[in-house]
Amino acid sequence: MITEKIFKKIKSPQIANSRIAHSKIMQFFFKYSLKSYNFLVSRTSFFQHGLNGSCGTGNSIHPTAIIERKNVVMGNLCTIGKNVIIEKNTIIGNNVTIEEGAVIGSEGFEFRRIAGELVPIVHTGGVIIHDNVRIGRSVCIDKSSLGTYTEIGDSSYIHTCTHIGHGVKIGQGTTLAQGTMVGGYADIGSRVRIGRDSSLADAIALEDEVRVPDCTIVTRSIKKISGDEMRGADHDGMA
């Protein structure tokens, strides 16, 4: 399958080493000259993913959907709903459903203050959506920064009005109920269930099969003990 070849390509040692080298260069500019960094990634081809845009067979794409022509790969039997926006550097597997109004690959929310001015950081990464994923209405998934990917695992379901921050990793068979907010670089395991209107802080980790109740604010990593019981990384009980 075309998407399997793409997944193997972006994880190959040659591509990985090249991306690491680029990432280190970009981190240098990011640290010492943010404006130079933003210029390089937004106005030049200094950092490109090199994906050849392609679309598989049996896909149903609504005529109002907007799909970037450059660096978007889509597998087979996908359904893309009304007013969906798919930005560049997005890889979509097979049998993926993206419902009305969702935005895939939006710019991450990250700024630095330079001489009293808030300067946005241009993101160079992308989004990977694996096979059999369902993304609900008005979901927003930010692309990652510095050439990496925000990633949604096989057979996961992201419900309506959920926001996934830049660089987030979600495992297989995980469900996020409506209104969930996930901070950047959070690492969510497989078969995790997150209740509606919950919020996850940046850069935390949820182990496989963790259950998060409705309307919960999670501020630290969670390890699963048994059943629905959860433990914070540093102490018992929900953070």
State the helical fraction: 10-25%
The helix-and-strand class reads alpha/beta
What is the 3D form? globular
- Biggest sheet features: 8 strands, parallel
Can you walk through the features of this model?
There is one protein chain. The chain is α/β, with parallel strands linked by helices and 239 residues long. It is built from three helices and 28 strands. The chain has one domain: Hexapeptide repeat proteins (UDP N-Acetylglucosamine Acyltransferase, domain 1, 3 Solenoid), CATH 2.160.10. It has helices spanning 2-10, 13-32, 34-43; strands spanning 54-55, 60-61, 66-67, 72-74, 79-80, 85-86, 90-92, 97-98, 103-106, 111-114, 117-120, 126-129, 134-135, 140-142, 149-152, 157-158, 163-164, 169-170, 175-176, 181-182, 187-188, 193-194, 199-200, 205-206, 211-212, 217-218, 222-224, 230-232. Helix 2 crosses helix 3. InterPro entries: GMPPB_C, Hexapep, LpxD, Trimer_LpxA-like_sf. It holds the Pfam family Hexapep. This is UDP-3-O-(3-hydroxymyristoyl) glucosamine N-acyltransferase.
Keywords:
8-stranded parallel β-sheet, alpha/beta, UDP N-Acetylglucosamine Acyltransferase, domain 1, single chain, disordered C terminus, 239 residues
Brief account:
Keywords: Acyltransferase, Lipid A biosynthesis, Lipid biosynthesis, Lipid metabolism, Transferase. By secondary structure, the chain is α/β, with parallel strands linked by helices.
Question: What is the topological layout?
Answer:
Elements: H1 2-10, H2 13-32, H3 34-43, E1 54-55, E2 60-61, E3 66-67, E4 72-74, E5 79-80, E6 85-86, E7 90-92, E8 97-98, E9 103-106, E10 111-114, E11 117-120, E12 126-129, E13 134-135, E14 140-142, E15 149-152, E16 157-158, E17 163-164, E18 169-170, E19 175-176, E20 181-182, E21 187-188, E22 193-194, E23 199-200, E24 205-206, E25 211-212, E26 217-218, E27 222-224, E28 230-232
Parallel strand pairs: 1-4, 2-5, 3-6, 4-7, 5-8, 6-9, 7-12, 8-13, 9-14, 12-15, 13-16, 14-17, 15-18, 16-19, 17-20, 18-21, 19-22, 20-23, 21-24, 22-25, 23-26
Antiparallel strand pairs: 10-11, 27-28
Helix pairs in contact: 2-3
